[in-house]
Amino acid sequence: MKHLREELWFNVPDRRGYINITSEVEALVRQSGVQQGLCLVNAMHITASVYINDDERGLIGDYDDWLEKLAPFNASGEVYRHNRTGEDNADAHMKRQIMGREVVVAITDSKLDFGPWEQIFYAEFDGRRRKRVLVKIIGE
Amino acid sequence: MKHLREELWFNVPDRRGYINITSEVEALVRQSGVQQGLCLVNAMHITASVYINDDERGLIGDYDDWLEKLAPFNASGEVYRHNRTGEDNADAHMKRQIMGREVVVAITDSKLDFGPWEQIFYAEFDGRRRKRVLVKIIGE
Amino acid sequence: MKHLREELWFNVPDRRGYINITSEVEALVRQSGVQQGLCLVNAMHITASVYINDDERGLIGDYDDWLEKLAPFNASGEVYRHNRTGEDNADAHMKRQIMGREVVVAITDSKLDFGPWEQIFYAEFDGRRRKRVLVKIIGE
């Protein structure tokens, strides 16, 4: 069995942001030498997501509006108990559950085995600091 | 390490539909010869989901109503920016995030290692065309 | 390839509850002898979730309120068709889709490869009976 472990680091300048990380993950698949296997990509922070969807600017804006509607930002401890701890990011913990922590992607013939429009995104919901994603590849 | 890769194809006649694909996945597990391992099942399209839940007709109707409430269909580009591209499926990209892209199921003693009511579904949110699911099995 | 399969059992006394299961999963990783691999942790029941987030009491209360807002409990068959079957747990099937069925965690150097605040939770949405989680570990 071959395996590879790597971290990708980000520092999103705003509270929220969406970054296409597909080419970085593809490069790690090549580096791993794995021909057949699985590639796990997960946020290592609990106010961020890794998800797969379209790299279309309008859609990303729609996601951002929609998440804000389902789990609005509110720094107050009267709205979110979590924010009584001094945090202001309770909404980010919720947004991340909608978009998910991780994706698992098949590796076939040394490549990410993707449908026509699948792209891997890092979604930041509480940015303005360095945060990271884990890539773990196993296979042969 | 053994591995198997197969696609399952669907053409849902309506915009939305929910198809139980458990027996197709089980057949692939048998075909793989894997006794202990992992089985990844993912939508290859970004307006569809693979999820695990109950095969009960009322529940499926409830899911459909609930998803429509959380992310209503609206073809207008004034509601969803994505639809300014000429698409009308922005809602489908959101519904898919709620229900998820993929499931990973354990294989134990050559079978899907399931609880009593777990069934694998393909959920279509933008049908009326051929779309597919990837099954990737690794193990020994 | 090494592999391990174990079940964790729970009996949550209330309808809903959130249990940190990280140390139980870590013990199974040690027991497996796997140094590099993947660890799948999934609810075996379709009205419960396994998810990764913070072990902070206020946040857990916020999740509970938020899930109840997105998918309110209502035993009536007029609100949820699923409840016409004699069940009263349709809301639990929806809450579970938001929080997810499973997590896949990397194993690196014989440990769960976690960011600073990642903790694995079992979330029960229809308790007061014995239910279980599957842990499946593969690697070498």
Give your account of this protein's structure.
3 copies of one chain form a homotrimer. The first copy, chain A, has 140 residues and is an alpha+beta fold. The first copy, chain A, has a single domain, classed as Sandwich (Jelly Rolls). Helices cover 25% and strands 38% of the residues of chain A. The first copy, chain A, has 3 helices and 8 strands, in the order ββαββααββββ. Chain A has helices at residues 22-32, 57-70, 90-99; strands at 2-11, 17-20, 36-43, 48-53, 102-108, 111-112, 119-124, 130-139. In chain A, a hairpin with a 2-residue loop joins strand 5 (102-108) and strand 6 (111-112). The radius of gyration of chain A is 16 Å and the shape is elongated. Chain A starts with a strand and ends with a strand. Chains in contact: A-B, A-C, B-C.
Features:
homotrimer; 140 residues; alpha+beta; five-stranded antiparallel β-sheet; three-stranded antiparallel β-sheet; 25% helix
